[in-house]
Amino acid sequence: MIIANNSFSLKLKALRQKNNLTQEQLANELNTRYHLNESKATISQFEHNKRIPDLDRLINIADYFQVSLDYLCCDVNKANITEEDNNISVFSYNLKKLREKHHLTQHGLAEKLKVSNGAISKWENCQREPDLSTLKKIKEYFNISYDSLLETNDNSFSSIDDLIDYIINQKVFIEYVGLSNDYKEVESIKLDIKDILKIISRKHK
Questions:
Q1: CA–CA separation, 86 vs 151, rounded Å?
Q2: Which of 40, 123, 145, 176 is 20 to 30 A from 17 in CA distance terms?
Q3: For residue 125, what pLDDT is reported?
Q4: Mean pLDDT over residues 108-134, rounded?
């Protein structure tokens, strides 16, 4: 899990205070619910950016406060992200896959929905989300449910390329690497990720 700067530390403290918990109380809550062995000192280290929790612990904390991992770990400047915003990266990926499945260019889909080419590009690159009326148009055009459009389908990765496309459309990834819309840069990063996955595969076979 990639954690941007000290955003996790600030988010954790804000969530704890919002729920009127002391550091010791939060440690006890986590210990009771997830059978852990945390202490007040550990929570303090997390909040002062002196220690970074592992992925399992991040999942526990996100689950306890009922927030997403993206919210917990993304840049603090995005602290006002709403639940709808958390779905943008999933929506971007699903929209692109639907468009390609129907053999449409961005221009072609823009004409069908009566929006600009730039709007489609921004939606697919996590730069903007459509309003509710446009979202309804997209749903009706592709004849799918809102869930299919806004939620992750665990069976949607039919290839490694599909998985990589999904990864590079995640907000936390885009912000961490400073990903631009440059085609050559995107393709280069895809190849880098594929190389990393090959190394992991060889290591664990």
A1: 10
A2: 176
A3: 77
A4: 84
Side chain identity at 112, as an amino acid letter?
A: K
Q: Which residues contact 122 (CB under 8 A, 6 or more apart)?
A: 128
Cα separation of 175 and 74, whole Å? 8
Is 86 within 8 Å of 52 (Cβ atoms)?
A: no
Residue pair 114/169 in contact (Cβ under 8 Å)? The answer is no
Evaluate if residue 92 carries a pLDDT over 60.
yes
Residue type, 2: I
Please give the average per-residue pLDDT across 5-9, as a whole number: 70
SS3 64: helix
Please measure the distance between the N-terminal and C-terminal CA atoms of the chain and give it in whole angstroms.
23
Q: Report the distance separating Cα 126 and Cα 195, nearest Å.
A: 25
Q: Region 63-92: what's the mean pLDDT?
A: 61
- The pLDDT score that the predictor gives to residue 151 is 67
3-state secondary structure of 140: helix
- Reported as half-sphere exposure (CB side, CA atoms, 13 A), residue 52 has a value of 12
3-state per-residue secondary structure call for 97-139: HHHHHCCCCHHHHHHHHCCCHHHHHHHHCCCCCCCHHHHHHHH
Convert the pLDDT of each residue in 11-33 to its tens digit: 899 899 988 999 999 999 999 99
